[in-house]
Amino acid sequence: MTRPATPVGAEHVQHLTAALDASAAAVATATRWGRELAGLLTGGARLVAAGNGGSAAQAAHLTAELVGRYRDDRRPFSAVALHAEVSALTAITNDYGHEEGFARQLEAHTRPGDVAVLLSTSGGSPNVVQAARRARAGGVTCWAMTGRGPNALTEVADDALVVASPFTATVQEVHLVLLHVLCAGLDAELDARLLAGAP
């Protein structure tokens, strides 16, 4: 007698739960990123974010939280999702090639001391890796969010959050959790600075 197959939905949740259970180090890193970002953004730095497909949606989610808010009301911060600049993106990829789509925008919009959050579930997306190289060359702090590593993006980035799941959907779901953790860390640091009377 064969055992019944695990329902598809239950299997999906099992993979997600396993990835979340293994994410303690990534949660600590995301919290640290948020706290660091609070100081950078209040000091006038800008954040840019980029990714392809589902990772583009995650990048836009992050920038929306920063320009808008995560939970509590606070001042808006400068944050741009590079894939959302459709005219610039398509002009650049047409004139300079796919790999330059994010990198050229990053070079235009950032200055030393800014932050780039770059997402790639494979860690090998050529346009994201090229953006990471351009960030490092321009003095922009580069944080990567990827699937299993090491990979081309983690090798270039200043720091990385790695979700060791073989499933793209699971990686993206955990990335969203970690982006919210980053935002919570940022808000906590802002609250602490307010209590301490810091600007």
Q: What name does CATH use for the topology?
A: Rossmann fold
**Mind telling me the CATH superfamily name?**
Glucose-6-phosphate isomerase like protein, domain 1
Rounded to the nearest angstrom, the distance between the terminal CA atoms is 68 Å
Low-confidence stretches: none
CATH architectural name: 3-Layer(aba) Sandwich
How many DSSP-defined strands? 5
For the record, the CATH class is Alpha Beta
Largest β-sheet summary:
5 strands, parallel
Radius of gyration: 18 Å
User: SSE string, helix = H, strand = E?
Assistant: HHEHEHHEHEHEH
Question: Which percent range fits the helix content?
Answer: 55-70%
| Class per helix and strand makeup | alpha/beta
| Spatial arrangement of strands, main beta sheet | 2-1-3-4-5
Brief sketch in words of this structure:
This protein has 8 helices and 5 strands, in the order H-H-E-H-E-H-H-E-H-E-H-E-H.
Structure keywords:
Rossmann fold; 199 residues; 12% strand; 57% helix; isomerase activity; alpha/beta; 5-stranded parallel β-sheet
Descriptive report:
This protein has 199 residues and is of the alpha/beta class. The protein has a five-stranded parallel beta sheet, sandwiched between helices. The mean pLDDT is 95. The chain has one domain (45-189): Glucose-6-phosphate isomerase like protein, domain 1 (Rossmann fold). The chain is globular, with a radius of gyration of 18 Å. The protein contains eight helices and five strands. The protein starts with 7 loop residues before the first helix and ends with a helix. The protein has helices spanning 8-21, 24-42, 54-67, 86-96, 100-109, 126-137, 152-156, 168-196, and strands at 47-50, 79-81, 115-120, 141-146, 159-162. Keywords: Isomerase.
